[in-house]
Amino acid sequence: MLQILPPRPPLPTRLRTQLESFLVLRRNFLELWGQPAYELEVLPGRFLGREQLMINAPDAIRHVLVGNADNYQRNPATRRVLQPVLGGGLFLAEGEAWRHQRRTIAPALSPRSMPVLAHHVVAASAAKEAELATLTHRPLELLPHLQHLALAIAGQSMFSLEMSGFAAELRRLLMSYGLRYAQPGILDLLLPENVPSLVDRGRAAFRVEWLAFLDRLIAVRSAYPPPGDRPRDLFDMLAAARDPETGAGFDHAQLRDEVSTMILAGHETTAVTLFWSLYLAALYPEQQERLAAEAAGAGLGADEAAGDLTRLPAIRAHVDEALRLYPPAFLIVRQAQAADSIMGHPVSAGTTITISPWVLHRHHKRWHAPDAFDPDRFMPGATPPERYAYMPFGAGPRICVGAQFALTEAVLVMARLLRAFRITHAGSGAVVPRAMVTTQPDRPVRFVLAPR
């Protein structure tokens, strides 16, 4: 599409000092990398006295995430920041604990579960669509509505619960954590993992409050009568899940950590995916009309939603391109446990390995016109992207177990909203992405919705 380029943060014009880099990291991680990161395949360096290696080559990424994955584990700073909200759930688990969780959870999010989950997506979308219909022809911030919708979908698909009684507290807790504890500080990077900082004490206090909230949520859901012959939602699936190798299920603490992981991964990342997808649709009106026409030809009812997915290739391609340009998870960090070699570069134990989907998806060796918006890259018949060059949900054994559900949700919500509304920007100025746990807009963004 030969139109304006979608916005991105400016590239640095010179090498930064270590202090400048740390300040940029705190402000907006996406401003950290200069032009060489988007052109080279391996970038060695040092940060705060420690060896770093950024990799953009698919073979090198495969080696770290698949071929020698046990040698590359999450780094201590990642665990410090995320453990208070995710506990020992699938995202942070390592080794045999991770393998047990993955084997147990995977069937609940397999393709055969999509009809049940798609039904919940459409039901929640219809309610939000009716609410937005009362707010047309006036500027409104769309991201909070998308966050509430994604939370409603999470509540319905995970618990068969209306989340209105829990939404305010959940958003308060997550906003509080995001603002106070989610950005890594200098002590997170320097202190040994077993030495807590003052911030870690705040995180620990937050975890007490967070677990109490999850216990109340699970208690309400557990009071439901047992399901019939088919599970109603993900909670039924997880509660009944058994490791196919050991026969072990989840105890209460494990189930709570998996629920926490799915709430966070399943609603915040999906909300920003929908935001950027709709932002791009408003930025390119001709594309929006193309998508609206496609959506008009699909039923999009709760009972037919799963079958509609195959009739929405342009909307799926649009979402895929939004995920390329604005991946919610912008950085993957691993730490080498033992010495290794990557593409001829020696790796010593303790070296930090970084893989940035943000950089990788805009890399000049991986993509034609990498900063341009071109959803035709992902249309049926197009040459698929190189493996390990496009990874909005990670890659290898630790690829996001809910990736199929997230895509199902994004495509169906996009189709419902674009069939119902013409969406335009209210105001001027580019919206710059900012890395804050996920890839967020740098300021509140207002849109105008008009009924079709």
Please characterize this protein's 3D structure.
It is a single chain. The chain is α+β, with helices and mostly antiparallel strands and 452 residues long. The protein has a domain at 18-76 and 114-158 and 249-451: Cytochrome P450 (Cytochrome p450, Orthogonal Bundle). Helices cover 48% and strands 11% of the residues. Strands 1-2-8-5-3 form a five-stranded mixed beta sheet. Strand 1 and strand 2 form a beta hairpin. The longest helix has 32 residues, at 252-283. The radius of gyration is 22 Å and the shape is globular.
**What is the molecular shape?**
globular
Query: Within the CATH hierarchy, at the fold level, what is the topology of one domain?
Result: Cytochrome p450
Give the full name of the CATH homologous superfamily of one domain: Cytochrome P450
Helix content: 40-55%
What are the segments in which pLDDT stays under 50 over at least 5 consecutive residues? none
In what order do the strands lie side by side in the largest sheet? 1-2-8-5-3
Number of strands: 12
The top-level CATH class of one domain is: Mainly Alpha
What characterizes the major β-sheet? 5 strands, mixed
List the secondary-structure elements in sequence, H or E.
HEEHEHHHEHHHHHHHHHEEEEHHEEEE
- Structural class determined from secondary elements: alpha+beta
In what range is the share of β-strand residues?
A: 5-15%
CATH architecture name of one domain: Orthogonal Bundle
How many angstroms separate the termini?
Answer: 24 Å
Quick check: average pLDDT?
A: 88
* Rg over C-alpha atoms, rounded to the nearest angstrom: 22 Å
